[in-house]
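User: Show me an example of a complex going from sequences to C-alpha cells.

Assistant: Sure. Here are the input components:
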Amino acid sequence: MSALDLVRVIRRAGRITEPASAATESDFTPPPALAGSAQVRHVDCGSCNGCEIELAGAFGPVYDAERFGARLVASPRHADVLAVTGAPTCNLAEPLRRSVDAAPQPRVVIAIGDCAAGVGAFAQGYAVVGAVSDIVPVDLVVPGCPPPPDAIVAALRQVTGR
Amino acid sequence: MTALALAWQVLVAVALTPLLIGVMRQLRARLEGRAGAGVGQPWRDARKLLAKEPLAADGAGPLMAAAPLVLVVSSLVSVALVPLLGIATLAWVPDDLFVVVSVLLVGTVALALLGLESGTAFGGMGSSRHMMIAALVEPTVLVAVYALSVPVGTTALSAILQARMTDPATVVSPVSLLALVALTIVVLAETGRLPVDNPATHLELTMVHEAMVLESSGRDLGWLELGSWLRLTALLGLVVNLALPWGVAADLGVIATLVATVAFAAKLFLAGAIIAAAEVFLAKVRLFRVPELLAGSFVLAFLSVTASYLIV
C-alpha cells in the first residue's frame, strides 16, 4: 500500500471509536493516586485466549480504553493495574504471585472472565488451583465467558475514574 | 537578569514537554481512528508515577535510583544550554556545541548503566543496542553542527543562531539543508522514535529504550520518562530553531521573551505534529539496518561540511 492509499484510508475511516457510555456506579473506591491514569499489565495464567481477544478489543480502535487514561505496558514494574485472565493453573500460581509482587503500590488487581472468577468451563479441573482470588487479593471481577470489551473498559474506568 | 531568563527557559521547556508528547500521541491516535487519551495524559502519567514508591529487584544496586536522576539532570542542563528562547547567554555557562553533546552523552551512559544494573537479559540487550546507536549518532551531531559553525566561525550555538537570524537566507543554503536533514535523522534516533526505535512496543526483542527501563518502577520510572521526554524537547527545539530562526529573543526584554515563548511553543508543536504524522506511515527498521540509516545521515553531514568549504 502506497502512502497515498494510506492517506485515503485514514480519511475514509475517520474516527472509528464508538461514543463513550455513561460511567458505571459501583462500591469500588480506586486508590486516589491512580486518578486519570492507569497502566495495565496483562497476566495470562491459563486462559483459552478468549479473554485475550476481548482484552485486545478493549484497547483497539473501536472501544479505545486509552481515551479513559488506561494504557497497556510491557512490564509489571510499570503497571498500576494487573489484568489477570484464565483459570490459574498449578504451574502459573507462583508466576502470578510474583507478577503481582513486582507491581509497585498502590496497585489494583482485576480478574477478567469467568475462569479467573473461579467458575466457568475449566473450574474444578485437574490442573486448576481455583479462582485468582485464592492466590492474590482481587479488587475487581469482570464476569463473562468471555466478557465483552465494554465490560473490561467499564472496569478500567472505575480505576481511572474517567 | 540573564540567569532569570535561563530559569524561565528551563521552566517553559519542562512545562511544554509533557504537552508535546501529548500532542504527538493524540495526533497519532486520531490518524489511527482512535479517540486518544487527550493531550494532558502524559502529564497525568508522570504525576502518578512520581507519586508511586519504586520497587527494587533483588540484587539491584544504588544505580537503579541514581541513574534516573542523572538522566533528568543531564536533560535539564541540556535544555538550559541549548538556545531555545533567546540567544543571550551567561558568560559562565558554555552553550558550546561540544558541551551540549557531552551533557547529553552523560544521560545516555546513565541509561545504559541502568539497563545493565537491572541484571535481566533484556536490560543488557537494550543497553548494548543503545550504545551502538549512540556511537553512530554522536559523530553525526558533531559533524552536522560543525558544518553550520564553519560559516560563522564559532561552535557556540547561540552565535550560530544569531547569524541565522540576521541573515535568514543562509537557512536554505545547501550546507544548512544537508546539515538539518542529517540532524533530524539523528534526533529521531537519539530520542528513540520510529524508524529506529518504537516507543509503544510491547515486544521485548524489538526494544531499545524500553528494554533498559523494564525493571524500573514508580518514581524512578517517572524520572526516566521525564528525562527522555526533555531530551526530545532539547534536541527538537535546537533543530526547529536552526530551521526556523524566527521569534527567538535577541535581547532580555519581557515582551521579546514572551514572544519567543509563544513562537517556540508553536514551532515545537508543529515539529512534533510532523513527526507524529510521519510515524503513522513508518515501520521500525530492522536493527541491523539502523547503522545504514545512521551512516546515511553521517554522509549527509559530511557532505555538508565539504560544501561549507566549497560553497561560500
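The lines above are the inputs; the final block is the predicted structure for all two components together. Chain A touches chain B at residues 3, 6, 10, 13-17, 33-37, 39, 61, 64, 66-69, 71-75, 77-78, 80, 102-106 (CB under 8 Å).
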